[in-house]
Amino acid sequence: MADKHYSFFKGVEKNFEKAAPFTGLKKGLLEQIKACNAVFRMMYPVELGNGEIEVIEAYRVQHSNHRLPTKGGIRYSTAVNQDEVMALAALMTYKCAIVDVPFGGAKGGVKIDPRSYTESQLEGITRRYTTELVRKNFIGPGLDVPAPDYGTGAREMAWIMDTYSTLKHGEINAAGCVTGKPVKQNGIRGRAEATGRGVFYGIREACSYADDMDKLGLTTGLQGKTMVIQGLGNVGSHTGLISQKEGGVKIIGVAEYEGSIYKEDGIDMDTLLAFRKETGSIMGFPGSTSLEHRGSALELECDILVPAALENQINIDNAANVKAKIIAEAANGPVTPEAEEILLERGCLIIPDMYINAGGVTVSYFEWLKNLSHIRFGRMQKRFDGNRYEKLIDLVAQLTGKEIGDIERNVLANGADEIDLVRSGLEETMVVAYQGIRKTWQENENIPDLRTAAFVYSIRKIGSDYMTLGIWP
Quick check: helix, strand or coil at residue 74? Predict the structure, then answer.
């Protein structure tokens, strides 16, 4: 009941204010960093093709222009409102700073249920939204670069790019006006899995520190740890698939819109996703137990809980029932500040959203760079590296007198493809960012938790930008 009128943006500000005293920055600069720079609320008509005209409510918020372009996704949801979009834009500012991506934070939202429209109608809504953004200079490869979010994907991003390119005919970098596009339409390999893969790398890094795991009564590493996932959208499904295949995690519970299930000996993610695609639901998955309601999975006893749906999912009403030792916030704002206090008191490690789900913006940055450079990653060096490795293998074979088989030779001699480089860059980014956050936490015993350390780490970077770039008096 206490969260009925919960303000997501006020929650973000509360976390900011909790971290501010540890940053060493002056009050005026902190106020500038915290404030939303620009809010664009629009109402526009769309002809739905059946003779009816519907007026659509939509937003684009630029939280910080300390670096350009600003960056942030566009979500389609009936829950979209100004408070939510402002909060998400603010988190993007801090997120970009944490992972050293040179963007300011932004976010967009269209207040619709995409399931209620045909593809043609969605295209019309998306193209008109893009037109409104162009009119107000709220989109462009050097101004503001959207991306997919809840309710949108590569298809919508392709419509946005095409509309922008039409309105800005001849702009050589037009493809860089949006990221998350289809690979064949100036996208990048590895973008679809990016946020989920980033979640995996982040959890893996967090679980690699013996001191931190000892406090939770856990061993280091992911092998054999139990996981519960809320939300089987793009982020949740990829997190589950990659954690299971590459980390050896046992997924014992899953929650989705239609309900939640539990399976003590583990749920195979490939099989579950195929089952849901065929039946339209996770309920009735062979060997699983149906739980009382869709929120029940959040309260299962497990090592790692991954809320990958929407904000405000763990709140003051259910926080006391959450038994996970680690919560990885794959969604934005799934744990309210009030709920966090309860969980931290119990000793839970919360890996904050502004770090753990930064894989999407990291790979979006790679895509943006690819669009500006007009060249596929790996094209210049793949064959060069492959030939060099071949010569090295031949030299080893000659010196040892041993023959190297074709399979081994192919594995060792292949140069890096685009997806190899993307995954490598993402892994490096997530590892280094976590190390920076953890070091900030370790160096000041008064910083109470990992989220506050992440805010401190981020705010200091943004403050440094303001001062060194000469945009703060």
Answer: strand
User: What is the Cα–Cα distance from 244 to 97, expressed in whole angstroms?
Assistant: 30
Say which of 18, 34, 71, 107 is annotated catalytic: 107
Ordered domains of the chain (ranges, CATH): 36-185 (3.40.50.10860), 189-381+416-449 (3.40.50.720)
Q: Please name the amino acid found at residue 62.
A: Q
| Res. 59: pLDDT tops 80 | yes
**How far apart are alpha carbons 473 and 467 in whole angstroms?**
8
* Predicted confidence (pLDDT) per residue in 15-37, tens digit: 999 999 999 999 999 999 999 99
Q: What is the dihedral of CA 456, 460, 466, 468, to 10 degrees?
A: -170
Catalytic site includes residue 215:
no
Identify the three-state secondary structure at position 450: helix
**Ordered strands of the 226-230 beta sheet:** 289-290, 259-262, 250-256, 226-230, 304-307, 326-328, 349-351
Q: Which two tokens stand for residue 47?
A: 């002809």
- pLDDT single digits (tens) 193-250: 999 999 999 999 999 999 999 999 999 999 999 999 999 989 999 999 999 999 999 9
Q: What gap in Å lies between CA 373 and CA 378, rounded to an integer?
A: 12
Query: Quick check: helix, strand or coil at residue 364?
Result: helix
- DSSP state, 70? E
Here the tokens at position 211 are 């001191």
Residues 6+ apart with CB under 8 A from 255: 228, 229, 230, 231, 261, 291, 294, 295, 296, 297, 298, 309
| 8-state DSSP, 222 | S
